[in-house]
């Protein structure tokens, strides 16, 4: 699927926005450069500034000697 903005590169960012009040859904499919320049990215970056990413703990399985 091509980027809806530039029509040149593959769309790799898929955004669904729900409009408050009406519940209307707006979808955008953008390539990375167009997303980075978009108002959506700027808004999200401003709202999430200072956040740290969360990495859930990995599951540690018991060492099974029979699988060696």
Can you give the helix content as a percent range? 10-25%
- How are helices and strands ordered from N to C? EEHH
Spatial strand order of the main sheet: 1-2
What is the first-to-last residue Cα distance? 45 Å
Task: Count every beta strand, where a strand is a DSSP E run of 2 or more residues.
Answer: 2
Strand content: 15-25%
Continuous helix count: 2
Q: Give the radius of gyration.
A: 19 Å
Shape: extended
- Low-confidence residue ranges: none
- Report the sheet with the most strands, covering strand number, pairing sense and barrel closure: 2 strands, antiparallel
Q: Which secondary-structure class do the elements indicate?
A: alpha+beta
Could you explain the architecture of this structure?
This protein is an alpha+beta fold and 68 residues long. The protein has a domain at 1-41. It is 22% helix and 18% strand. The chain contains 2 helices and 2 strands, in the order E-E-H-H. The chain has a two-stranded antiparallel ribbon. The longest helix has 9 residues, at 39-47. The protein is extended and about 50 Å long. 7% of the residues are buried. The model has no long low-confidence stretch (mean pLDDT 81).
Describe how the helices and strands are arranged:
Layout: E1 13-18, E2 25-30, H1 32-37, H2 39-47
Antiparallel strand pairs: 1-2
How would you summarize this macromolecular structure in one to three sentences?
This protein is an alpha+beta fold and about 70 residues long.
Task: Pick out its properties.
68 residues, alpha+beta, two-stranded antiparallel sheet, extended
